[in-house]
Amino acid sequence: MVFFRNQFADVVEWEEFRDDMIFWKWGNREIKKGSKLIIRSGQDAIFVNNGKIEGIFENEGEYSMDSQIIPFLSTLKGFKFGFNSGMRVEVLFVNTKEFTVRWGTQNPILIPTPQLPGGMPIRANGTFNFKVNDYVTLIDKIAGVKDSYLVEDVKLRITSVLDQLLMKWISREGKDMFNLQANASDIARGIREDLDMQMMDNGMTITGFQVMSFNYPPEIQAMITKTASHEMIGNLQKYQQVSMTDGIASGNVKGGGAAADMAGMMMGMNMAGEMLKNINQSQQGAKQPADPEPAPSSSDSKPKPKFCPNCGQKTDGANFCSNCGQKLG
After folding, report:
1. pLDDT value at 295 more than 80
2. Fewer CB in a 10 Å sphere around the end CB: N or C, the chain?
3. Looking at the whole model, is its pTM more than 0.70?
4. Which candidate, 228, 124, 229, 116, places its Cα nearest to that of 183?
């Protein structure tokens, strides 16, 4: 008799609560009159009979089993248990919060790329969010055979298909394979929709999916960075000048002070040459061509006499004689 009495429970509550636990099943033990049901914030309590939901209690608080819970259940789908010597119940406690999980690719994903015959090896990481939204499906597919379910169980299922989904949506939305971050929101939206379809089968929904970053192999990232530098600077000559400056400042130009001085002198000469070239071009552009001198007329080409042939007066280069008016030219 002592053993039998120990099987009775005074309190029905989530005894093994963990923040990363999605649901926990209160064992099929007997309760007695005067027992209490305790529901805490963020929990729903589901009474189950033969794998079917008899009642869902969502409001946090403390309830009397025999005066508040059992009478309510008896009006539902045939919760017809005698309550003379004890009653066996099964209660599923569900965590109602939205879970946030970090994810990351374990191995590089080879994305088909025309520039790379073997594919572009890419890693990615981010987060996804989910919550329980269908208790009937949850009990039918998972809680019917498990006593508890953890966030890690969901993460394992998600990551098992994530590589294929990343490959699918990167290939579809990754218009610039060397700048995937620009299309990260479109890629994430497509993956979230596909994951949500899969998680619906377990009574859960994906409420968010984010891609925080895409990571390329070091040699590919170096090429991307170098190309971006060329685009920023404008041309190779200036890029070489900037690279030389960085090398001198950082001490990466080896060979002693003479080598560094020679490199600096060459760079200075190149820069001075560029400056003089720009100044000459500016001056030539600002300089206006001079007006050409008028060609001498035919009348000016005939020499004038020094003395008037009519009266002998000195002409001093005039066109007409000042004494007699004779035309001289």
Report:
1. no
2. N
3. no
4. 124
